[in-house]
Amino acid sequence: MARKTEFTPMNEAVKSGKITPEDLNSLREALFFDIMRCLERTRNRCKAHGLEPEEVCLSFDHPNESRGKHYASVSLRIG
What angle do CA 73, 31, 5 make, to 5 degrees? Predict the structure, then answer.
């Protein structure tokens, strides 16, 4: 039995024709830059308060920073 992954709905949308691979790549690129702008604004806000993003537990992982990583992640630890 094939293993279901979190990418199954995306693959099904492409196969059914709801979205083309080119549209998907365009969307991914647009979302990535939205995340980058958000991160930059958040960094600026931290620095305005005299703190580094790491000091308030903000981190951003770029998908190309390590081998095998295919996702971008923005996280803020609270508590």
Answer: 60
pLDDT, tens digit only, all 79 positions of the chain? 555 556 678 788 888 988 888 888 888 888 888 888 888 888 899 899 999 888 888 887 766 655 666 666 778 787 7
Q: Read off the tokens for 68.
A: 């095998």
Angle subtended by helix axes 8-16 and 21-48, to nearest 10: 140
User: What does the alpha-carbon distance between residue 74 and residue 71 come to, in Å, rounded to a whole number?
Assistant: 10
At 61, which helix (H) or strand (E)? strand 58-61
pTM: 0.58
Contact between residue 66 and residue 55 where contact means Cβ atoms under 8 Å apart = no
Decide: 31 and 15 in contact? Cβ < 8 Å. Answer: no
* Centroid of chain to Cα 65: 13
